[in-house]
Design a protein that fits this description.
mainly beta, Immunoglobulin-like, 2 domains, 3-stranded antiparallel sheet, 2 helices, 11% helix, elongated
Length: 154
């Protein structure tokens, strides 16, 4: 490529191979995919077990700070409760190895009712702003990936 002389052949290569370049660039670092999420349809007192299986389809682990956040969203798509399960450790999701994590999630202050259960990768615990995108087709609510509905009972 003649990047030193205006970069025209490099630009042509990018135009002609856009799909390949995009596919390779998403594999350079980490590239997280949520393969499976298991949780009950009903949570007594707002507490329940959550099982997540992740794959890192990239070429490296993540080195920047991040944390898994789990949230309840109400019927108007407003986040009403958030927690950061310590059992979820993105820095341990290595390329080519599925990472299965089991966490006890506690939303003890959540009022009885039905919620959307969602998750996001945030910069750190207590920072509820989604930070890292996942390779998934899950529906989203305010940047959070919706896993499904869950009922909180007392």
């Amino acid at each position: 490529m003649d990047l030193g002389r205006g970069g025209q052949s490099g630009l042509r290569m990018v135009r002609e191979n856009r799909e390949l370049i995009e596919r390779l660039s998403t594999r350079i670092g980490y590239h997280f995919h949520l393969q499976r999420a298991t949780f009950p349809r009903r949570a007594e007192q707002g507490d329940f077990d959550l099982e997540l299986t992740w794959t890192n389809q990239g070429a490296a682990p993540i080195y920047i700070p991040c944390a898994v956040a789990v949230a309840f969203f109400d019927e108007s798509c407003q986040r009403v409760a958030t927690t950061w399960p310590t059992e979820c450790r993105p820095h341990q999701w290595m390329p080519g190895q599925p990472a299965a994590e089991k966490a006890r999630v506690a939303f003890s202050k959540a009022r009885p009712g039905e919620y959307c259960l969602a998750l996001a990768l945030t910069r750190k615990k207590d920072d509820a702003v989604p930070y890292i995108r996942l390779g998934t087709d899950l529906p989203m609510a305010d940047g959070w990936y919706v896993l499904g509905r869950i009922e909180v009972a007392r």
